[in-house]
Design brief:
The protein is of the alpha+beta class. The protein is 58% helix and 16% strand. It contains 17 helices and 14 strands. Strands 4-3-7-6-5 form a five-stranded antiparallel β-sheet, sandwiched between helices. Strands 9-11-12-14-13 form a five-stranded mixed β-sheet. It has a two-stranded antiparallel sheet with strand order 1-2. Helix 4 crosses helix 7 (127-148) and helix 5 (77-93) packs antiparallel against helix 6 (99-119). The longest helix is centred in the first third of the chain and has 59 residues, at 152-210. The radius of gyration is 40 Å and the shape is elongated.
């Protein structure tokens, strides 16, 4: 009978160890809810053990202390005390000349186990500590029985008959309970770690495809990768309207492009929560081999943008680890889709700003240029002709459809046309120059379109316009020491910038879109391999340095 109680304790430990919520309660700090669960479970174990005890010489020999000890070991002093009170009162209610001593010993055992737990966390508890707790609890019970139970002779006879087996069974039961729970915890930790590794591999391999957004092609690639890496029979990925991809065991009803007709999918879109389904799961095919399904929302910007469906057959079954893996993969997929959406929005914003920059011909600049050309037509027709050519070149370059990257020669030609027009306005007080390396031809290297003219315009408008004489602006192109990067500098000797203004420019807080757009396009096109820096001192001028990797094609 006592060995039967041990089996009951072992079975309870196994069932509890398989319960995710109970494992979380054990490993997390104690709260009112977990304390209540521990008290109920361990008290029931103590009560059942008392009912299944063995009568020896008018007293009851049982393993009820195992339940009480487990209450203290997994729940601490308060749970140990509560379990001890319940188990002790129940034992007292069963009567017998050892009722009081056994009830008191049960209460003290719960407190003692809880005090030990307060010093040793459950994951630090080993079989030696568990055996020591059980042995000490039995010593307390035997001692109280010999001291308090009357008549003494009957108590002594009882202990001679029951002391050894009850002590052995209590120790074995307590040790088994602790070891089973800890072993189940380790198994789930290992399974969880394996699932996390699989999820990270899936995220790494699907990233190149999902960075382009969630469509049928990227979803198909992602589904194939998931099936190849995860222990899953089939997966499906949908958007808000239709199934985008399916991979795994062939079926009649699960096809890419099908409209969404699964009831559980509608529920996921409404609630934004995971749904676990069994049986036909609404696919309409009675012969469908996919019996279990985990339907997880793909959350983008806080709203379901699709679902990830994780399928298993009846033969393979479904575990808690499968659910955690499906949810983990769905979170990673959601993050990738969200990042792709952010990148797309960023590109659209930059394209809009680029078009705005192209169309940003200052009316005053245009009117002033035309006025200068008109005034030169009679006395300096050749100069007027050259300015008209420069203006035509600028307008043609501005309104043409450009690729993001163009040859440096085209970019320099546009900047030169702009500077020639500005020099006509400034007269002799402005000197400009464009300097290229003598030993290497870099004019065919590709650079971002509309990069130099906005920087030159910024230097003229904010740096040189306020000076009355000796205005100098230079565009210098060179190669770095290794010959792998273009170094382009726009240098002026204007009024410079204050540290506050310079910091606003670096933080993209300036009001104009020209320079800020150049900074953002360099960062987006070269993904951190290009750079633009600003150096400026008030009264001395400003130098803008652009460093770009050599590119021989767009």
């Amino acid at each position: 009978m006592l060995l039967g109680n041990v089996c009951i304790s072992a079975m309870v430990a196994y069932l509890l160890g398989r319960n995710k919520r109970f494992r979380q309660y054990i490993m997390a700090p104690l709260n009112l809810q977990s304390a209540g669960v521990f008290t109920v479970v361990c008290s029931l174990l103590a009560i059942i053990s008392s009912y299944y005890g063995t009568r020896i010489n008018g007293a009851l020999a049982s393993t009820r202390i195992v339940g009480v000890l487990m209450g203290g070991i997994i729940g601490g002093p308060w749970v140990g005390m509560a379990t001890g009170i319940i188990g002790g009162l129940h034992r007292y209610s069963l009567g017998g000349f050892t009722a009081f001593s056994c009830g008191l010993a049960t209460f003290l055992a719960g407190i003692m186990a809880g005090l030990v737990r307060s010093r040793y966390p459950f994951d630090k508890m080993n079989w030696k500590i568990a055996a020591g707790i059980a042995l000490f609890a039995e010593i307390i019970q035997k001692s109280l029985t010999l001291i308090l139970a009357k008549p003494f002779e009957q108590a002594l006879a009882f202990e001679k008959a029951a002391a050894l087996p009850t002590t052995a069974v209590t120790i074995i039961g307590t040790v088994l309970f602790v070891l089973i729970l800890q072993d189940m915890e380790k198994q789930y930790e290992m399974a969880g770690a394996s699932a996390a590794q699989i999820a990270m591999r899936i995220a790494n391999e699907t990233m190149p495809y999902l960075r382009k957004g969630l469509d049928m092609e990227s979803a198909r690639k992602a589904a194939d990768i998931i099936v190849s890496l995860a222990d899953v029979d089939a997966v499906a990925i949908t958007n808000e309207h239709k199934s985008l991809a399916y991979a795994g065991i062939p079926t009649k009803s699960h096809k890419p492009g099908n409209p969404l007709y699964f009831p559980d999918t509608e529920e996921v879109f409404k609630t934004g929560k995971t749904v676990v389904v069994t049986g036909s799961h609404g696919c309409g095919d009675p012969d469908c081999p996919l019996y279990y399904g985990i339907v997880v929302p793909l959350m983008v910007h806080g709203k379901p943008a699709g679902v990830f469906r994780f399928y298993q057959t009846r033969k393979k079954g479904l575990s808690q680890v499968d659910i955690e893996l499906a949810e983990g993969v769905a979170r990673l997929l959601s993050t990738q889709v969200e990042l792709a959406d952010y990148e797309e929005q960023q590109v659209l914003r930059e394209q809009a700003e680029f078009k705005a920059l192209q169309s940003q011909i200052n009316p005053h600049f245009l009117f002033n240029t035309l006025s200068i050309i008109i005034s030169l037509c009679r006395n300096h027709p050749e100069t007027a002709r050259e300015l008209l050519i420069n203006l035509a070149d600028m307008l043609h370059f501005t309104f043409a459809q450009h690729e993001p990257l163009i040859p440096l020669e085209e970019e320099l030609h546009n900047a030169e046309a702009y500077l020639n027009i500005v020099k006509a306005r400034f007269g002799s007080r402005l000197t400009t120059e464009i300097i290229l390396p003598e030993d290497t031809d870099v004019r065919d290297d590709f650079v971002p379109a509309f990069m130099l003219q906005p920087l030159a315009e910024n230097a003229i408008t904010h740096g040189l316009f306020q000076k009355t004489e000796d205005c100098r602006l230079a565009i210098r192109v060179a190669l770095d020491g290794a010959g792998n990067h273009l170094i382009i500098r726009v240098i002026d000797n204007g009024v410079g910038m204050s540290p506050e203004t310079l910091q606003k420019l670096k933080n993209l807080e300036s009001k104009g879109i020209g320079t800020a757009n150049v900074i953002k396009r360099i960062d987006h096109i070269y993904q951190g391999r290009g750079d633009i820096t600003f150096q400026s001192r008030e009264g001395e001028g400003t130098t803008v340095t652009i460093t770009l990797p050599i590119r021989q094609e767009a």
